[in-house]
Amino acid sequence: MNAQDTFLANLLRKTGLFTEPQLQTLLSADLSDGKGLPGAVARLEIAKERVFLEKLAPLLGMGFVDLEAVHPTDEAIRLLPARAVTQYNALPLAVEGDTLSVALADPLNTIAADGIRLASGKNIRVCLAPAEEIDKAIKKYYGVGAEAIDQLIKDGRYEVSDEANISKIDVNEMGQEASIVRFVNQIIAEADRQGATDIHVEPMEDELRIRYRIDGMLHKVDVPPQLNRLKAAIISRLKVMANLDIAEKRLPMDGRIGIRLNGEDIDIRVSTCPTAYGESVSLRLLQKAGNFVQLKDLGMSPRDLALTEKLISRPNGIILVTGPTGSGKSTSLYAFLHEINKVSVRIMTAEDPIEYEMKGINQVLVRSDIGLTFARALRAFLRQDPDIIMVGEIRDGETAEIAINASLTGHLVFSTLHTNDAAGAFARLIDMGAEPFLVASAVAGVLAQRLARRLCPKCRQQVPLKEAWWDQPQPPPQDFVYAPGGCDACSHTGYRGRGAIFELLGVSEQIGSLIIGRHSSAEIRKAAMAEGMATLRQDGWRKVFNGFTSVEELMRVTEDAK
After folding, report:
1. Which among 352, 435, 343 has a CA at the least distance from the CA of 387?
2. Residue pair 485/494 in contact by the 8 Å Cβ criterion
């Protein structure tokens, strides 16, 4: 063991975090990934990076800084350019005379310290902080993609050339791309990292606002302030990627982008719309990889799960999933298909768009621009000898009629509708022109659902159940519920991820009679509740009491379906 290894081994022993075998593993670890010793400690799951750095800092005569509590000064931010900050993953904190305090994750990275010294022209005082916290702070204070914009401003380039159309761009291979291309790629990559479903690029009078939709809520993205000067180039780049005409700025347009990110294919739907200050661009991110939610993991009650398993095992009939846009209907349909997808069963789907690619089923992309509508695809399916048909949405009377006929001739049909609750689906079909007696015979069950934000399990907290909250006739099962807190794991929102609440209505003989008699949705709903159906609000309360979501979130997502 050389002198450097001996010094390092003694240093690691003094932290009190490692056994001798762990020390040897660390000393022989590959540190060429740019994350240094703290990264190796975290990667090998020996200790948390934050805990390791807190122990290590005093041994090296350095300070440990909590970037949630400490804010960089404007002078420090101006002193160190974005490209240096990003290259070395360093955050300038404060300037004192000729000394710049900088947060680094790896205290042994002398190359970073020397580079920062040259870039700033100051002496460097190193403080330690976890790499992920530094990266998060860089995005906060400099903005996402700051170094790309920094380089663009430096080079004086404000336009993007109309290069050859690219059908699939590897977002991870950004080194050879121009700065504007790199910035757009970084915006998409950061959206994917944060689990966003949509990106909105919105030109305003004095800024280009970028927002991500995460867990159903919009969040503004921190971007460099000079971005407004580049909005035309950024919007043009997005249109080039989507194969849209960059010269046409007066009409709304739709396109698609295919990208590869971290080895995963992502399909992006692009929509442009002219506004007062330029074209607004919306991007919907669709993960094409098939990490499907299992039926048992959807979060249904035992009653609903048993009835769903019975319904999807039927040889024929229509099963409808209802709810507003973004309520998780597609996820539930794919869970159904995944459950019954077998070699002995032929499954055909008509979708707009194909949100997930599933092995073993025949998926057709609906294209109304060339006449391939849901109705036409469904009619073609009936000549393809399918056992199970999935239609993305029943939008008109023609599609409804074909779906009903398909179910009555021995096919199991899955589809979606836009209604507020399960009982409203029957009136909707009848309004489309379907005969009530055919609806009663064909529809086997209706699943209404909403997506509610999931409370962060690390910071949720118990609070007393207020009397004003409780809106059910029976007494509550407990006197406390859970409320959001706020921690690093959930970005201080109190919520992390989403899950569904359900209302499952099975069509019994009595409910069939009500449908044939054209009774109101309220009467059908009342009969279904008498047969054991839990409403969206009731299922939501079950998940409030078990700590899944909060009362405020339940009220928000079920306001139109009490």
Report:
1. 343
2. yes
Beta strands, E only, 66-194: 91-96, 99-104, 123-128, 168-170
Residue 166 pLDDT: 36
From the list 201, 163, 208, the residue with the least C-alpha distance to 181 is: 163
Contact 111, 71 (CB under 8 A): no
- Residue recorded with tokens 């990490």: 291
Round to whole Å and give the CA distance between 158 and 155: 9
Q: How does residue 562 score in pLDDT terms, banded at 50, 70 and 90? A: low
* HSE, side-chain direction, 13 A CA sphere, residue 441: 14
Residue identified by tokens 């599609």 is: 399
Residues 410 and 404: their CA atoms lie apart, in Å, by 10
State pLDDT tens for residues 79-98: 888 778 888 888 999 999 99
- Other Cβ atoms less than 10 A from the Cβ of 211: the count is 18
By percentage, how much of the chain surpasses pLDDT 70?
A: 91
- As a whole number of angstroms, the distance between CA 537 and CA 501 comes to 8
Task: Please give the model's pTM, rounded to 2 decimal places.
Answer: 0.73
The more confidently predicted of residues 14 and 437 is 437
In the predicted model, what is the mean pLDDT of residues 19-25?
80
113-120 long-range contacts, Cβ below 8 Å, gap at least 24?
115/84, 115/87, 115/88, 116/80, 116/84, 116/88, 116/90, 119/80, 119/81, 119/84, 120/79, 120/80, 120/84, 120/92
Count of CA atoms in the C-beta half-sphere (13 A) of 398:
7
Number of other residues whose CB lies within 10 A of the CB of residue 13: 12
- Predicted confidence (pLDDT) at residue 459 exceeds the cutoff of 90: yes
How many residues are recorded in the chain? Answer: 562
Dihedral in degrees, nearest 10, Cα atoms 384, 390, 391, 392: -140
Query: Going by C-beta distance under 8 Å and a sequence separation of 6 or more, which residues neighbour residue 369?
Result: none
* Residues with Cβ within 8 Å of residue 128, at least 6 apart in sequence: 53, 56, 57, 62, 63, 64, 65, 103, 104, 105, 107
Q: Which pLDDT band, with edges at 50, 70 and 90, does 533 fall under?
A: very high
3-state helix, strand, coil in the chain (%, to 5): 40, 25, 40
Task: Return the H-helix or E-strand segment holding 464.
Answer: strand 461-464
Q: What is the Cα–Cα distance from 506 to 186, expressed in whole angstroms?
A: 47
Torsion of Cα atoms, 188 then 192 then 197 then 199, to 10° = -20
Please say whether the beta carbons of 515 and 426 come within 8 A.
Answer: yes
d(C-alpha 32, C-alpha 28), whole Å: 12
Predicted local distance difference test score (pLDDT) of residue 453: 94
- One-letter amino acid for residue 3 of the chain: A
Q: Which contacts of 205-209 are long-range, i.e. CB under 8 A and separated by 24 or more positions?
A: 205/277, 208/234
